[in-house]
């Protein structure tokens, strides 16, 4: 550069200094306490400087500090942390005094003496920057640094961040004007406190409390001299002086702070030397606070919680706004997760399945009467590696990672039972239920008309009685019984109850489809969460609660509570109907029932198995009065295939069933979760629920059909002989073998009683009785006789001694 050029530039240096100081004076710097000794410099300003001052901002509008939010379990223990900036604001009294002295010593040792600007430092920096042709030295006071950090914190776009950090004199002048306003509004201690809460200390640690906990595992109030000096030195260059990645540079910077503190007589030479001899950090004490659900001990549960939070309009209008608010507003989110119950669920899944299996296992556990979702567990862990997944197999597709359910098989029969009992059908109600039944072309009424299928020949998967009661059919999971029962009462009341109990299609969120096979679980895809919560309604005697996973939300700083969707518990079934369902499903767990092997302890238990077509999924759902759970084992890799010949629990499957495959997962989880709790019992339903509004039937076995019909007619019943001919029985040939309904079941007044006639195949021969001469009866007045109903024979038509006997 030529000498003339240097001479030409020199006046610019002087001009810059005068303009800067003049602007400061015009902006009110003198009254803010800048202690400028050059008051006359105000007269140096020009029209340009006047315009600059005119448009400078007057007050610093700060944005709330970004704080981490925590997700807690039911006992208040943190299970996940969510943040964009790891920060926990503290008061000045919660910061070690030596930390306050260290940061002031190295960043602005005259902080308590000057106003918004340290004139000496600013002049020095300004001259050096001007001579260097760029802004190379800050010279900023702690107040100015606080202003700059506040503007960066307030920035929401890359352009705003760029403006807040631009190395220009315009930005510096605006920063100074803000600093003047801040010094008018806040005390020095308040400014220092805010600065320490806002500053970045590296490694995702914002604010002095988070930094102290991260690097040393202590609160800011417990920081000692070498720790405080290290943190004070970090502020200038958090990356360059990172004690983890660059321990030597970090120590050198820390020692600079210590020597400066010694120079200012804040500490003695011995204190400085002793501190210099200490290691900069102990790597074993560095505490990393992971952010996000992926780092949680319960990642699937956590993601479901976050998805629920994002539904809350109190946190913003859009999903992005809500996510930002959740991660920056310092929320305490308390959930329903119970770690004992969760441990039980996880232990059960680990015992009965493996992460490397071809098929998956999942279980959800819910508290009846509250809807509290106590636990969720599944066999495949969270992650992107082989054998891991991001899918949550317990929840609906509408939530982050929700898989969207599986067909749930015969667990749907519980809703048919509830609908039937609700319409007055007794649990003793019998239907002739062959192994296979033809239902093609038969109409099933729905809420919107009728439905049918051209060809449908369902069969039972287990052997059962030919005329089972509702209890018998539930024990054996008799398909042909429940299909006929659903046809008789209609699909609409069944679908209505299922809907009231929270059952929707987990893929679409729409109502379950009212198809002919509704009661067999072909109406849509269901999740363990849905099913366990629905069954919990039976356990709660008809009180349904929305699944409750978030119990409270409050501000970490103020304690202010946010409104959250509650469980909305309300009655959907009468206590009597729920008691009836419990009574029927309780019989599934006793000898002869499909769930008998899963019974444990002294508490009453109820449950239902479920198996889908081609064994693509198997279920067990059950409950006590204190806890409900639903477990599923299924092929979760589309397209779903038969699980036979796939691996489960490390072995190739040769069979799949609700009781033998999914049942043990339910059993172990429930047994561990209920361990140590008092036993509980269901409320016994009244006799009308069990037997209906019935009258007792007489004992008719061994009577002639005509005599039995007369007896029934005299008691207000109707009678007819059952189709199909004589049946195997130990009653004499031609006599009544049994009735439908059975004698022990009773029947409503006026009901038609079917008489089954014996063929005598199992009757034991008996010697003829000795002849008896009957006494001559006294003469009596003629009485009215009861005529047998039309169609009944007056002699036994099946007795070979009466070949000409015909029906009357």
TrEMBL record:
The keyword Cell wall biogenesis/degradation applies. InterPro entries: Beta-lactam/transpept-like, Glyco_trans_51, Glycosyltr_51/Transpeptidase, Lysozyme-like_dom_sf, PASTA_dom, PBP_transglycosylase, PCN-bd_Tpept. Residues 697-759 form the PASTA domain. It comes from the Bacteria. The keyword Lyase does not apply. Residues 76-262 form the Glycosyl transferase family domain. One of its GO terms (cellular component) is outer membrane-bounded periplasmic space. One of its GO terms (molecular function) is serine-type D-Ala-D-Ala carboxypeptidase activity. Residues 765-800 have a biased composition (Pro residues). Residues 362-634 form the Penicillin-binding protein transpeptidase domain. Residues 758-808 are annotated as: Disordered. It catalyses: Preferential cleavage: (Ac)2-L-Lys-D-Ala-|-D-Ala. Also transpeptidation of peptidyl-alanyl moieties that are N-acyl substituents of D-alanine; [GlcNAc-(1->4)-Mur2Ac(oyl-L-Ala-gamma-D-Glu-L-Lys-D-Ala-D-Ala)](n)-di-trans,octa-cis-undecaprenyl diphosphate + beta-D-GlcNAc-(1->4)-Mur2Ac(oyl-L-Ala-gamma-D-Glu-L-Lys-D-Ala-D-Ala)-di-trans,octa-cis-undecaprenyl diphosphate = [GlcNAc-(1->4)-Mur2Ac(oyl-L-Ala-gamma-D-Glu-L-Lys-D-Ala-D-Ala)](n+1)-di-trans,octa-cis-undecaprenyl diphosphate + di-trans,octa-cis-undecaprenyl diphosphate + H(+). GO terms for biological process: cell wall organization; peptidoglycan biosynthetic process; proteolysis; regulation of cell shape. Keywords: Carboxypeptidase, Cell shape, Cell wall biogenesis/degradation, Glycosyltransferase, Hydrolase, Multifunctional enzyme, Peptidoglycan synthesis, Protease, Transferase. In the N-terminal section; belongs to the glycosyltransferase 51 family. In the C-terminal section; belongs to the transpeptidase family. This is Membrane peptidoglycan carboxypeptidase. It comes from Kribbella shirazensis. The lineage of its organism: Bacteria, Bacillati, Actinomycetota, Actinomycetes, Propionibacteriales.
